[in-house]
TrEMBL record:
Keywords attached to this entry: ATP-binding, Membrane, Nucleotide-binding, Transmembrane, Transmembrane helix, Transport
Entry keyword annotation includes Transmembrane helix: yes
Compartments (UniProt record): Membrane
Residue ranges crossing the lipid bilayer per the database entry: 227-251, 320-339
Keyword ATP-binding: yes
Organism name: Arachis hypogaea (Peanut)
Protein known as: ABC transporter B family member
Pfam families: ABC_membrane (PF00664), ABC_tran (PF00005)
SUPFAM superfamilies attached to this UniProt entry: ABC transporter transmembrane region (SSF90123), P-loop containing nucleoside triphosphate hydrolases (SSF52540)
CDD domains: ABC_6TM_exporters
Highest taxon in the source lineage: Eukaryota
GO molecular function, one term: ATP hydrolysis activity
Length: 677
């Protein structure tokens, strides 16, 4: 299979659980890209209403502490962004170099306008000055475009790298982080931070990069021009600017608070937009972090290129508009030439220019900051310097406010990388080779939070290699928690879990999960091909198609697959929506067979199937259980009867149901209690 055949999904939205499929209306957005991917990207959205925000005022006695905390946060934010900015230093430096050329051209252009008007009586000098002005205008336009395009390139590339970095860190987090425990975050909040807030960072980074050097250079040049023209007016201007800056700083502090609240409220709303993150249990259980990271990276690249193209166009538009206004210089040249030759009177020329300026007025309503600044270039040298100085001051204030608005987004992205996992791989963790599959749970106790009761309390269970053990019990009894501990998605509070006498805390996580397969009752499928779903674990390398077909036959899925329009290359749609329940279950079983684990966890599906599908799924499950250690969370009596031993699990305690009594009272008891069907 070629690299281009790897299917894509928007990671925040593409995973599926079976019961979601029946309870939601899916809105699908098909995204198209010129990037050479063979499959389209589907993005379903699931909104949830945000919780009410609490607006708490900080007591005045804590103000100093808050300020210190704010300064610390600001320093952390800058340190967090620093390596990404350094890695993109080339476009930043080139952009600043273009800004230096642009400022130099503008300075020369403004200073030569007076000489140009004095040269109007001399034809040859007029032509030479006009040529110089034309060259300066061209240099200003080209360098201005280069400045904006390069700095946007750096800003968007920074956001791309921040997104990939944060997403990779999120995939490394333990399961408790995704369940909002002890400093974690909800799936919607995570999705919003990585998408919307990361996009805000682009505007912030660009605004800062476009202010540090370009605006400083232009401000210095215009201040020098003003001092040369009128020291007195310059002194007045330089007195006003610091006062304005202090006011802007005050507004920036207030804006930052409002911006943070806005981010929090929208983050709650973005809980609509998640499907992948609730399926992180499946991702981690299948060692698929690298696969999902690769997919996210490719999608982030698409986003980066799309936004870069948009910003490049936006960078070109102001330069084109400037060219229109600089074009009025040619009218000045022509008018001056006509006046010098006596073929055009001054009054007529003034009327013409006035009409021209009024014709431009509608454009000024759309782009006042551009038109006013550059029309002032044409009028008077002193006025143009002052107007540009005011514009630059506004730009500096705007950039400061942009930073204050974007800073909370950077902080929240940074916070996601600082979560301290409790499930940490030891430096000396070992790789498991071939294993027999013996399992031992020794005095295992567990609770999700310190202030919650134990879900498991002193649990002991030995499962021999190749043995099938069934767990039955009411919902909330601890069965799923036991599975999470075996996959080491959590660590037990006390006790230990051993595989072939190896404590799982001493085993590399990827090695552990390679040997433990999971088939959940909530079938997780992706909007890719049949082959890609079966060979999910090999998506980062190359799927073995012969093996895919073999396991599909074993799982009794090959028959229906061959009837599909494109066979194993058929795209099953978002969440496998084109397949029936029985087909989805057989695909999940085929995926587990493709993994070929030594230990199998089977969380049996409870959904009803037609008799033919039920029979095919039952046969597939029997094949899946062969020659493996199997721990079944059983919901059907037929499955319970296949197990060598059966345990009733309730309130974190295990009670073995003797097999000799299964055909008598316990069987009837299990049926009457609704624990099995």
């Amino acid at each position: 299979m070629s690299s281009n055949s790897i299917f894509l999904l928007k990671p925040s939205f593409q995973f599926s659980t079976q019961h979601h499929h029946h309870h939601h209306h899916h809105h699908i957005l098909l995204l198209k890209s010129k990037t050479p991917f063979s499959k389209p990207i589907f993005s379903p959205y699931y909104p949830k209403y945000p919780p009410p925000l609490s607006s708490t005022r900080i007591h005045s006695s804590t103000t100093s502490i808050t300020k210190n905390s704010s300064n610390t946060k600001k320093n952390e934010t800058l340190r967090f962004l620093q390596p990404f900015l350094i890695s993109n230093r080339k476009p930043i430096i080139l952009g600043w170099l273009c800004s230096a050329i642009s400022v130099f051209s503008l300075s020369q252009l403004v200073s030569r306008l007076g000489k140009f008007s004095n040269a109007a009586i001399d034809g040859p000098q007029l032509r030479s000055q006009g040529l110089i002005l034309l060259c300066l205008v061209a240099a200003r336009l080209v360098s201005g475009y280069g400045q904006h395009a390069l700095l946007w390139d750096a800003a968007l590339k920074t956001v791309y790298e921040v997104r990939v970095h944060v997403f990779d860190r999120v995939l490394e987090r333990e399961l408790g982080y995704f369940e909002g425990r002890e400093g974690g975050a909800s799936a919607g909040d995570i999705a919003y931070r990585i998408t919307a807030e990361a996009s805000d960072v682009a505007d912030t980074v660009y605004s800062v990069l476009n202010t540090i050097v370009p605006s400083t250079l232009q401000l210095s040049a215009m201040m020098a021009q003003m001092i040369v023209i009128s020291p007195v007016l310059s002194l007045i201007s330089f007195t006003v600017i610091p006062c304005m800056s202090l006011f802007v700083a005050y507004l920036g502090q207030e804006l930052r608070k409002i911006s943070r609240e806005a981010h929090l409220s929208i983050a709650a709303l973005s809980a609509y937009l998640n499907e992948m993150l609730p399926a992180v249990f499946f991702v981690k259980a299948n060692n698929a972090e690298l696969c999902e990271s690769a997919r996210f990276k490719r999608l982030a690249q698409i986003d980066y290129h799309a936004k870069l193209n948009k910003r490049r166009m936006k960078a070109a538009i102001p330069q084109v508009i400037q060219a229109i206004y600089y074009g009025t210089l040619s009218i000045l040249c022509a008018g001056s030439l006509l006046i010098s030759r006596g073929s055009f009177d001054g009054h007529s020329f003034i009327s013409f220019v006035t009409s021209l300026l009024f014709s431009i007025e509608p454009i000024q309503n759309f782009l006042p900051s551009i038109t006013e600044a550059f029309l002032d270039d044409i009028r008077y040298r002193s006025d143009s310097s002052c107007a540009l100085l005011m514009k630059i001051t506004q730009d500096v204030g705007k950039a400061y406010n942009e930073w204050r608005q974007g800073e909370p987004a950077v902080e929240r992205l940074h916070d996601m990388t600082k979560f301290k996992d409790k499930v940490v791989e030891k430096p000396d963790a070992v790789e498991l080779g071939h294993i027999m599959g013996e399992l031992k749970f020794r005095d295992v106790s567990f609770k999700y939070n310190d202030d919650m009761p134990h879900v498991l309390n002193g649990l002991n269970l030995n499962i021999r290699a190749g043995e099938i053990v069934a767990l039955v019990g009411p919902s909330g009894g601890g069965k799923t928690t036991l599975v999470k501990l075996l996959l080491r998605l959590y660590n037990p509070v006390s006790g230990s879990i051993l595989i072939d006498n190896h404590n799982i805390e001493n085993i590399r996580l990827r090695s552990l999960r390679k040997h433990v397969g999971l088939v959940s009752q909530d079938i997780t499928l992706f909007s890719g091909t049949i082959a890609e779903n079966i060979g999910y674990r090999d998506l980062t390398t190359k799927i073995d198609m012969e093996r895919v077909k073999h396991v599909a036959q074993t799982a009794h899925a090959d028959e229906f697959i061959r009837k599909l329009p494109e066979g194993y290359e058929t795209n099953i749609g978002p969440r496998g929506s084109t397949l029936s329940g029985g087909q989805r279950q057989r695909l999940a079983i085929a995926r587990a067979l493709y993994q070929d684990p030594s230990i199998l966890i089977l969380d049996e599906a409870t959904s009803a199937l037609d008799s033919k599908s039920e029979l095919l799924v039952r046969k597939a499950v029997e094949h899946l259980m062969e020659n493996r250690t199997v721990l079944v969370i059983a919901h059907r009596l037929e499955t319970v009867m296949m197990a060598k031993r059966v345990f009733l699990m309730d309130n974190g305690k295990l009670q073995e149901v003797p097999r000799s009594t299964m055909f008598n009272g316990h069987k009837d008891s299990l049926l009457s209690s609704g624990l099995v069907i």
